[in-house]
Amino acid sequence: MANPWLLISTFGGAEPTLIGQGNQPKSFVPLDRVFRSRRTVSTALLEVQQLVLDMINRPSPIDHTATSGSRMAAMPLLNSEGRLHGLQLWRGSVDETPPDRDPVGAWHFNLTLGQASGSDDLFDLYRVAEKDRRSTVAQAGAFTRLKTNLDEGEALAKILRSEPGTEHQAVWTVVRDDGEERAAHFSCRMLREGKHVILRGLTHDIGPAASAHVAAQAPVVLEHRIVETKLRPGEHLAYVDLRRLQLVKWRGEPMPGIAWENLPEQPTPGIHPDDVPVARRMVDDLAHRSTSGEIRFRALDGTWRLVHLEVSLMMFDQHTTGGLVTARFAE
């Protein structure tokens, strides 16, 4: 059997690490631990390090015979801006044929602006039709195809804190646009770029969700289930970053008629400028109690729609709070 493809991360400016071997997720393993040798430095390690360096300097497909006689093949994984996030690498004998590569896509979030961007490889992984591909959308839109795992709170807490250097890995279920559910391994790292905090990562399709060796299970949070049972027709739940007044994720169906996706053909999402102080006062009130109020949001037709909000604090982890918002159109 041919050697498996290796998935190597290069995002975030850190030392390249192994994050996948075949369809097996790996936890940011240093390359010198992967290519061990009884000697001080192994030939394989030197060859792989040189190939990775060549890829970083000039990200393009590679297929050549190394000085040791091994065949080396690699494919770059670029984000929508053409920035290298990683590579898939195969090493074997010259008479071997590499196996098929698993789908892998690069992506990045601008956490400061609340925007998400995916590569064509990511859209291929999601089976997104050409007409539906958008280079930059609202950050919350990145979750619409995902069934998150039990670590959802931890992942969202990291997004809210937005601390450069933070890393996260998880196996979540991707619901592709063709309806098939796949288990996907997500690896990412935050870094500061100028005035913005950017989350850069890779998504690796590791197989059917039902049979993947790491089950991607939906989170079960009792507090949220209780709230869901009390929802009335026309009400929608959302997680909100209270510091930035940004939508983080819809829990369930998004609110219709409101501009939140940041699509090119839609109005720019936003709160009416006169209502921003109202929203800030509601956030301040949460220090003492749950609160409610009415705020105008930009609608899909370009007008402002008055929305009634009921907001309570929720804990994403022991140190990070956000807003759990129930929204409905005001009567």
The N- and C-terminal alpha carbons lie at a distance of 66 Å
Count the E strands. 18
> Pairing-aware structural class of the strands and helices?
alpha+beta
CA radius of gyration:
22 Å
What is the domain tally? 3
Chain-wise SSE layout:
Elements lengths: L5 E4 L7 E5 L2 E7 H4 L8 H15 L4 E4 L4 E9 L5 E10 L10 E7 L4 E4 L1 H7 L10 E2 L7 E2 L4 H10 L5 E9 L5 E13 L2 E13 L13 H8 L6 E6 L4 E6 L24 H10 L5 E8 L5 E14 L2 E10 L2
Antiparallel strand pairs: 1-2, 1-6, 2-3, 4-5, 5-6, 7-8, 7-13, 8-9, 10-11, 11-12, 12-13, 14-15, 14-18, 16-17, 17-18
Describe the structure.
The protein has 331 residues and is an alpha+beta fold. The protein folds into 3 domains: 88 residues, Beta-Lactamase, CATH 3.30.450; 105 residues, Beta-Lactamase, CATH 3.30.450.20; 108 residues, PAS domain (Beta-Lactamase, 2-Layer Sandwich). It is built from 6 helices and 18 strands. It has a 7-stranded antiparallel beta sheet with strand order 9-8-7-13-12-11-10. Strand 12 and strand 13 form a beta hairpin. The longest helix has 15 residues. It is elongated. The protein starts with 5 loop residues before the first strand and ends with a strand. About 3% of the residues have low confidence.
